[in-house]
Structure formats: C-alpha cells, structure tokens
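pasting for ref. prot 1 ->
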Amino acid sequence: MLETDHDERVSPRRWRAGAFGGLALVAAWLLVPMVSTSTPGPDVAVGLPADVSNAQDRVERYVREFGHGVVTVSWSCDAPLTAAGDRRTVAVVTSDVAPCPEAFAAASVIVLLDPSVSLDPGLVGEDRRVIDGSGLIPGGPGARIGCAWWEPFDGGAVGCEPDGQVTVRDSTGALTEAGAERLARLVVAALSTP
C-alpha cells in the first residue's frame, strides 16, 4: 500500500457540502429554461367601460382559467385603449362608448354589447373581429333574457328565475352577477375562437 501524509476518507461535513452543491447545480439547470422563457407580463388586455366595470374580477378570473395572463383597463371616449406590444386587446363596447370608435381602434377583438350600435365597416378588418354579445346581454336597466344552460335554477338569486328568465342588468343598468358571468364567457369565447 502506498503511504500518504493525509487521511483518504472524506469527512461528513465535506460530503454534505458537496451533495448540497450538486443539488443546487441540478436545480439551477432545471429552473433556468423556465425563467428565461416565461412571458414578461399579461398577453391579454381587456378594456371595460365604466358601465360594465363591475365584471372586472369575473372577467380576469375566467381569462386566467383559460391560460392567459390578463390585465383589465378602464377606458372611455376621453381615455382611449392603447395597444401594448404583442398583447391582444379586447374592447367591450357599450352604448356609452360606441359614439367614439377612435377610442377602441387599438383593439384586436371587439365585444359589442348594445344591439342599437352599428360599427363603421372600416373598423372591422381581417385583423379585427367583432363579437355581437347583445344576444346574451341586452342593454337597458332591468334587462332580462332567457336562461342559458350554465345558469342554475335557484329562484333568481344569481341564476334562472322561475319564469325561465335571468336578470342581467340591475335597475341602474349595471351588470348583475348573471350579467358579469355572461360577459366573462363572451370575452373568453372571443379569445378562444380564431
């Protein structure tokens, strides 16, 4: 046997340090691709005018559930929507903001909630889609419409009332819970269809 002037055994302290260092290297190697390829922010912006802004939380939750990062912005004729990089912009258009189409010109998808509003054909092009949501959420205070398949029959608290109708707007014209649910579904459908 060869004689050496040091002990060839590795101390437990050195062994643990080496094992933890190796684990840290493996963890870093696995995490770097995930960090470097993540998107820097939301890939969808949803513009909500003031008269439907009470649907913000529900719209954000639904869009996130379908795998998109989302930011909602309030917009009006005085504060137009702006496009931000590669972000898809969805504009919810009601009668309050319909008179000023230049305010939502940056939108790639328009969800139209007022059947009395007709958009200039120049606003609808190959790169912009218009979804007519007035069949699901009619305008006007106290608006009611026939129940949809997803609305529970609960006597009218949130879902379907005994007469087979659901109230989608309250007496002030703001969206009810059922109206907010329908708007969230419309936005997700607009994002999901090519």
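and prot 2 ->
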Amino acid sequence: MKSAVASAALALACAACSPTPSPTPTAKADDAHAAAQAALGVTYEVKLTGGPTAPCQLKLDPATLATTTPACQAQYPLIQHVTKWKATEGGSLSLLAANGTSLADFSPVQDGTGVYLRGGADGAIYELWPPQ
C-alpha cells in the first residue's frame, strides 16, 4: 500500500514539474480569428458613396449570421442574398450567400475612420459604417 501511495505522490510531483505545453500555431490562429470575428460582428450602417443616405442596417452577429430588412435589400441589391459572413485576413470581412459563396468583400480604410469599403457594380463604392 505504501508503494502505491508513493507512486501516486511521485506521479503528481512529476506532473507539477512538467512544463505546460505551448499553444500550437493553429490554436493561436484560431484564437485570433475568433477575436476578429467577435470584433467585426456588429450592426453596420450601409451606404453608397455619393448616393442616397436612407437608413439601412446590416447586422453581422459573431455567430456569422447576417440579417437586414427587406427595405435595405431593395435599396442595395448587392446585399439582397447575404445570409452569412466571415472575417478574413487583415481585418477584412466577406458577405456570403446561404451556400457560402462570397458576394462582397470589405476591407478596412486605412484612415482610421472604421469604414469598410467595397467596389460595387458600375464603379459604385459601398460602405459599411460601424456603430458610432
């Protein structure tokens, strides 16, 4: 009985001395992606540069669902079939159709305003403005 207790104590002592494994590069990348997804998952005001400014919101929740109103879809056909989204590299995001096809890609503006831009049809530029 003594040797079983001694063996268990030795095993616990050795376990306590063992170095904690470092997170793998994949785990670090997954953590960074989850953080980006959470940061980008907000409700945006959709605008067309130089176009009308009627209220139109696109809600991107951190669970990757994208929702908007029928009026917004009618105003901006570009987002008509958007049901999902995903964070991409460099703080960018992609708006996706139900089947996962990318419909629009937005990249951050480098002037610090927090606006996301996307070139649309006929040279129009669509903007996503985060909450102010």
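Helices lie at 2-17, 25-40, 70-75.
The two ends are 68 Å apart (CA to CA).
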